[in-house]
Design a protein that fits this description.
Pfam families: Coprogen_oxidas. With 299 residues, the protein is of the alpha+beta class. It has ten helices and nine strands.
Length: 299
């Protein structure tokens, strides 16, 4: 188990994505290093009011603690009370143009230890797409890149992690998906450390090819106030999921993480409406009928 190798990859991945997104947007990320009193720290790279990204962030964190928070041990109760080391890269991009989708990606590594016992390690991560106006070719492209990232490791991973993503990014209180999914997985320690680490590397390395072509295709599409209004309404679902269900947000807050970095994922402009429904046959209604349905995008 080479923890230093994981950290080096994550830092390189953060810088690669930041540099590429600066090329696409034309604006610069604000880089902010921070330390955590309980141990560890990180680097937050945030863009606000860019040329195309209304808000975006690419965060690296490497933190230590005496007790795993409930969000990390909920599925592994035998690990409760162990000290932990956690590191990862997490990003969210909220474009201004309503025809360009929001995207999220995360890759992370945990080690839980206690005296006299073998360390327990695992990886987690994934990426998912949240459109406001759906395009089938975008959904197919994004899922194809997700599949490509996993295919060299096991043919069963993409359908399994795609289903996991559909089930995880689901707002139970709304009975609807957050977006069109992608892949999601946790507690990954298959075969050996190098195998699992290489899989995480592949997921991270496929992110830009999954998202940038979609952003570049949609970010200059003409739009009006109607589209912006619907985008703000749908962004409300993003906020609801992150604050109520997201394990990464809960872990960060429960472990005493840096609030500014944890809540970087929130969209800058959001609206809620009481009992609103899209007009039948409208482009807004099509998002619900054709895209927010847990569809199999790859034949």
């Amino acid at each position: 188990m080479d923890i230093l190798k994981v950290k080096e990859f994550l830092l390189e991945l953060q810088e690669l994505i930041v540099e590429r997104m600066e090329q696409v947007d034309g604006a610069k990320f604000h880089r902010d290093s921070w330390e955590r009193p309980e141990g560890g720290g990180g680097i937050s790279c945030v863009m606000e009011e860019g040329n195309h990204l209304e808000r975006g962030g690419v965060n690296f964190s490497h933190v230590f603690g005496q007790n795993l928070p409930p969000s990390a041990s909920a599925h592994r109760p035998e690990l409760a009370g162990r000290n932990f080391e956690a590191m990862g890269v997490s990003l969210v991009f909220h474009p201004r143009n309503p025809y360009a989708p929001t995207v999220h990606m995360n890759v992370r590594f945990f080690v839980a230890q206690k005296p006299g016992a073998e360390p327990v390690w695992w990886f987690g991560g994934g990426m998912d797409l949240t459109p406001y106006y759906g395009f089938e070719e975008d959904a197919v492209h994004f899922h194809q890149m997700c599949s490509n990232a996993l295919r060299p490791f096991d043919e069963s991973y993409y359908p399994r992690f795609k289903k996991w993503c559909d089930e995880y990014f689901f707002l139970k209180h709304r009975q609807e998906p957050r977006g069109i999914g992608g892949i999601f997985f946790d507690d990954l320690n298959d075969k050996d450390f190098d195998f699992s680490f290489n899989l995480i590397e592949s997921v991270g390395d496929h992110f830009l090819s999954a998202y940038v072509p979609i952003l570049e295709k949609r970010m200059n599409t003409p739009y009006g106030e109607r589209e912006r209004d619907f985008q703000a309404y749908r962004r409300g679902r993003y906020v609801e999921f992150n604050l109520v269900y997201d394990r990464g947000t809960l872990f960060g807050l429960q472990s005493g993480g840096r609030t500014e970095s944890i809540l970087m994922s929130m969209p800058p402009i959001v609206k809620w409406r009481y009992d609103w429904k899209p007009e039948e046959g409208s482009p807004e209604a099509k998002l619900y009928s054709d895209f927010l349905i847990g569809k199999e995008w790859l034949s």
